[in-house]
Amino acid sequence: MRAGLGRLALAVAFSAGCAVPAACAGPAPAGTVSVIGNWSGAEENSFQEVLHEFERETGIHAIYHGSQSLNKELETDVRQGHPPDVAIVSSLGQLAGYAAAGVLKPFTLPGAETNRYGRQWLRWSQDVRPGDAAPDQWYAFVFKADLRSAIWYDPTALRALLGPQETAAMPATWDQLVALQNRIRAAHGIPWCVGMESTPNSGWPGTDWIADILLHQSGVEAYQDWTNGRLPWTSAVVRQAWTTWGSLVQGPGAVAGGTQGALLTNYAAAGNLMFAQPPGCYLDHKAAFVMANYRGGTPPAQPGADFDFFPSPDAGGGTGDVREVSADFATMFNATPQAEKLIQFLASDAAQRIWPGIATGSAFSADAELPPSVYSDDVKRRVAATLHSGTLCFNASDLMPASLSAAFNQAVLAYLSDPARLDALLAQLESLRQQAYSTQTGTFKCGRA
After folding, report:
1. Which residues does UniProt assign to the signal peptide (predicted)?
2. Domain that holds residue 274
């Protein structure tokens, strides 16, 4: 484990001009601010551009640490008494626990009173507040938003396989999605790009898919009951979501490399098979951040021409405009002047434009006032519009207790390896649900954007 970042204190012997009033009111304090998040590779490079602008504006040095085991590492740091100054975390359930334990520090949030961030995005940020918080105190805000209910495809490859009509109108219902899958198979193509490997969190692409299916198959109320620990894993609703996913990805010719290959294939590498010659697969169910992986290939895939998306279709739940989404929440563990400056900067309109404005990036803002022109292409603009319309439901795994979320990941891997184990796996998850929610169930809700 890294050294305690929260205890770092270097003096910075330069100052800079200030273009973001919220971030730079008064003299810039010398020193550093430590930040932890889960971004690495291209995503880390994009976030570093945000931090570099913060350093230029304030003269404060930001030290970023990226961890693929973010939740466990942060929990350890908090327990040992030396958390980072600022953490950017996707698990809303984990953050609510930190707030209840009194380890998060409050801050003011510019624009909150005007719904600049979008109503439902603000509601989820409010869910992190402890019960005794003042109305103007915030303990988290959405720094980066993402769309989970998305199916990606290569228009050029699909058109070459099936004909021009296949990209004129993409599936709007589950039956149409299944029909498209069957036409791909009939044309000797492999429909689905599936990769479960994402150490140490392998399996999450499957949990995303199952959650998305449950939402669109059984509706918002069932989804809320499930994510808040009120719906048993052994219920018909939950089981049906698993078997519906299984009907897509199990069986000969359904998945590139077969189900056993999918267990070993990295989630990002799986989607890039769409751009092989000939294509290794044609459809990729993945969060919108995967756009950066597509753009990072050789040669880089181009939005619109080489990749596009359609929202996950209604599967009988009457959920045509309902989307599963996720977010990375900025929070403060140490109320230093430097940490407060960084929080205010990250929440500013100027900072919210930086990562979404990177052409090869794949970040989206919960700032409803951000103009579409910030995004570099039409595909990004459509994703951004989706994040500010319809009914939004938060990613299920990020609402569950950490132990249950981790077991969900492992159960996906076991089910993909051996579908006959499904009932036993659901029984195990149900036992964990009863333990995790023995005293209180969750209160997170879906809502209109």
Report:
1. 1-25
2. 150-323
